Amino acid sequence: MDHGAATTTTDPAATSAPLGPPLVELKDVNKHFGELHVLKDIDLTVRKGEVLVVVGPSGSGKSTLCRAINRLETIDSGEIRIDGVPLPEEGKALAKLRADVGMVFQAFNLFAHKTILENVTLGPVKVRRERSAAAKERALELLDRVGVKNQAGKMPAQLSGGQQQRVAIARALAMKPKVMLFDEPTSALDPEMINEVLDVMVALAKEGMTMIVVTHEMGFARKAANRVVFMADGQIVEEATPEEFFTAPKSARAKDFLSKILSH
Amino acid sequence: MGDFLSQFGELFATYDVPGAFWVNIQLTFWAAIFSLVLGTVLALMRISPIASLQWAGTSYVNILRNTPLTVIMTFLFLAVWTQLQITLSDDFAQNFFRFGVIGLTVYHAAFVCEAIRSGVNTVPLGQAEAARAIGLSFLPAARLIILPQAFRGAIAPLGNTLIALLKNSTVVVAVSVSTEASTLMREMIESNANFIYAIFILFALGFAVLVIPVGLLTTYLSNRLAVRR
Ligand SMILES: Nc1ncnc2c1ncn2[C@@H]1O[C@H](COP(=O)(O)OP(=O)(O)OP(=O)(O)O)[C@@H](O)[C@H]1O
Ligand SMILES: [Mg+2]
Hints:
The complex is a heterodimer of chains A (264) and B (229).
Chain A: H1 3-10, E1 22-33, E2 36-47, E3 51-55, H2 62-69, E4 77-82, E5 85-86, H3 91-99, E6 101-104, H4 116-126, H5 132-145, H6 161-173, E7 179-183, H7 191-206, E8 210-214, H8 218-224, E9 227-232, E10 235-240, H9 242-247, H10 252-262
Parallel strand pairs in A: 3-8, 3-9, 6-7, 7-8
Antiparallel strand pairs in A: 1-2, 1-4, 4-5, 9-10
Chain B: H1 2-14, H2 17-47, H3 51-65, H4 69-83, H5 92-120, H6 125-133, H7 138-153, H8 155-168, H9 181-191, H10 196-224
């Protein structure tokens, strides 16, 4: 099963560059929370440069999938590889791998006691051991790119949700990650701030960043995604191009789900 | 009232009242520094991902917190010093002082640990997850992200621990000879029984003068340094 290769030829939304080799591979991944089976035999390959959107009803395991990829959640069985390397168990090797996987949370999670600029330079200086002047210069470039350079000296609580989330994206990008994970990055935002964050994400996708995005924003999926994966009850039920999925879903669960989010 | 004032005057003239309180202040100062260090290490053990360290930290806290300070002091003076002949200084008074600091430290470190842990509970889980997600391992994440926020959330309980420590510094002498506030009080009462109210008020005021600023300062600092979320 090679979804990535199939999408390069058939996907109308596919952007410029052809997709590269597999970057994130999940094989037969299972995860339980006590009795609850939250990830069931998940097989998924994301290629370099691919943008994958994950949708599904609440509790279907989307966050758990995302968090398993950088081992914020451990798995019970199966294998996860990033760039060919199996996820390390713990310690230095795991920390090193996490530095290569950017993560953007629903609740932003900016370091509350650090300025915006310090939030972005902390990783490069403390993890990548970059010189602080160089890290600062790059951080300001990134903040400029996401449109919040003029807020660099403020504390996170002084910024709006949309601004905080754009800083969180800059913080992740500062680590020069191989892949970026987004777990419902806009669902905690007021409606008028959603687009400013999605615009940054679309731009990132067009630049060729490999992205796994849990979101129900169909506009984003249509504009930027190569592929949509629909999850229900811990399983991948359906995979398709955004166009196919949103206009002609095959499974009953997906039809039901789409009718609910469209009626909002 | 005027009566009390003249009695105070006489007491101050006969005894070294500030000198006695100074001993309590010194005991408190050193024990506060060492128990802050030890308490932080214990708190780190308790929040660490390593089960054996968690267990060791929890055991320490539960045992020391539930042992009366007088028992710890007596153990140090009688068992360690007198029986095992372990001394920390050739000077007799210094030796008492150092054992006093150790006893106060090991006891209050358990409370400092719990104060810091309550501070850690004020830090949202997302902070630690974001720290791990950018590639910080446990110790750097604790040092750079968790503890700085936890300390700010723990200023009030740490202040309470400091106040308790200051008052508990009198226990050191229940088993020693050095002259600090409570020994001096006993001595005064023995030779000036008719001044009993004045003596009591003098020492109550003396501790109030030391404790109230600590309370005011910690309230001010915990508002001033609170992490805005
Ligand atoms: N730490 C946990 N302990 C126990 N159960 C959990 C834990 N985290 C998640 N779950 C459960 O696992 C299931 C999957 O959760 P998950 O957060 O992955 O779903 P989701 O698809 O992201 O849902 P949502 O759209 O609401 O964010 C849910 O039933 C949830 O209640
Ligand atoms: Mg979720």
